[in-house]
Amino acid sequence: MNTQVKICRTQRGLTLIEVLVAALVLAIGLAGLAGLNLRSLQASHSAYFSSIASMIAIDAEERAWLELGETGSYSLSDIESDVLAEWSFTNLPQLDVEISQVATGNGWIDVDIEISWADSRFGLADDAEEFAYRTRLPVAP
């Protein structure tokens, strides 16, 4: 009995072209993940700055209420300069605070508190960021 084993030589392994295509697909996927990670960091830092701006705006509102309770009146321009001086230690670059009276009615005034800063770390053309907060305060006698 003479049995011969036939060896199938149709598939011996991967060719160089298949390996290069697989490496290219992997590289594109890893580049996409790196870009996604960068965008995530940018969004996280932007949210951090917005949180600080929100705290500054609420602080300005609370200062107005405090002055009203202690002295019976308040000055929006004084509050603006106090808040700007107090919060200048933050890492918001080129921090600016603007407090303005918008409308009055029925013994109340609407006040806009605008916090702006420059965020040029990511090389964006439009690097000005702004946070707007509106509150209602009683008219000071």
UniProtKB/TrEMBL annotation:
**Keyword annotations:** Membrane, Transmembrane, Transmembrane helix
Source taxonomy: Bacteria, Pseudomonadati, Pseudomonadota, Gammaproteobacteria, Chromatiales
Q: What species is given as this protein's source?
A: Wenzhouxiangella limi
Q: List, alphabetically, the Pfam families matched.
A: N_methyl
Q: Does the keyword Transmembrane apply?
A: yes
Please list every transmembrane segment annotated in the UniProt record, as residue ranges: 12-36
Q: Which InterPro entries match?
A: N_methyl_site, Pilus_4_PilV
Protein name listed in UniProt = Type IV pilus modification protein PilV
Q: Which domain of life is it from?
A: Bacteria
